Amino acid sequence: MRVIVRWERPHPGTQLRFDDVDGYRLTAFTTNTRQEQLQQLELVHRRRARCEDRIRAGKQTGLNAFPLQGFGPNRIWCLIVQLAGELFAWTQMLALPRHATRR
After folding, report:
1. Distance between CA 27 and CA 4 in Å, rounded?
2. Cα 63 vs. chain centroid, distance in angstroms?
3. What is the mean pLDDT of residues 71-92?
4. Angle between helices 38-58 and 71-95 in degrees, nearest 10
5. What residues form DSSP beta bridges with 3?
6. Which of 15, 36, 60, 100 would give a disulfide with 40, using CB separation of 3.0 to 4.6 Å?
7. pLDDT at residue 68 is higher than 60
8. Phi-psi region of 7 (alpha: psi -120 to 50; beta: other; left: phi over 0)
9. DSSP output for 44-55
10. Who contacts 84 (Cβ-Cβ below 8 Å, separation ≥6)?
11. Could you tell me if 78 and 85 are in contact, meaning their C-beta atoms sit under 8 angstroms apart?
12. Alpha-carbon 85 to chain mean position
């Protein structure tokens, strides 16, 4: 198993944390893959983080609760939440600057 640590400057507008050293942020991830290059591993990690961020946003939007009684109304509720998530993702991609959407 490998632990890969990256030392990077936070994005503009990011609030610094108490563990940021001299304005830099340390990020780390572990992997047991040996065949891929470091850049490929980091790309896979960042894509996974983006996916988890979308899941978290869906849960905050209402995907983790079924407020209605019955299968049919809750199915419509899930479709509305999915639509809101898609609109949120497209808005991020189209309206925000390139460096803010491509992590």
Report:
1. 8
2. 16
3. 88
4. 130
5. 30
6. 36
7. yes
8. beta
9. HHHHHHHHHHHH
10. 61
11. no
12. 13
Question: What is the rounded average pLDDT for all residues in the chain?
Answer: 80
Are the C-beta atoms of 67 and 94 separated by less than 8 Å? no
List the one residue out of 26, 25, 34 whose CA is nearest residue 2.
Answer: 34
Contact between 68 and 81 (Cβ < 8 Å): no
Tens digit of each residue's pLDDT (9 = 90 or more) over 16-50: 777 777 778 887 888 887 777 877 887 887 788 88
Instruction: Determine the Cα–Cα distance for residues 103 and 41; give it in Å rounded to an integer.
Output: 14
**Residue 62: band (very low, low, confident or very high) from pLDDT cuts 50, 70, 90:** confident
Q: How far apart are CA 27 and CA 45, in angstroms?
A: 11
The pLDDT value recorded for residue 99 is: 53
